[in-house]
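dumping this here before i forget
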Amino acid sequence: MNITEFLLARIAEDEADLPYDVPNDYVLARLLAECEAKRAIVEVHGCSEGGREVWLDVPDLPEWEGFTPGYFSRDACLCCDDLMLMANQTREWPCRTLRALASVYTTHRDFDPAWA
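structure:
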């Protein structure tokens, strides 16, 4: 199970465990919206796991100075990746965003300590 699958399963569990009988519709609506927002974040940040390689050229922009074009592994978040490349930082998978979302589930039996 990868972190994307793990998070989507936890979000589904959280949604199933919601108190649907709460007297305040606002509370339920907010909790449901939170689940949807988390799914959207996972969709944006979790779309690139797989290790494919792509050619990255250096655009003719000042912020790319010092960056060398070539083949790079795409085991990195497509959303966070561009910002990290521009800053010449090491790319990582899972990204910090997915790690932060997973951090609330560290006691779950399927949580991988490598995601911490």
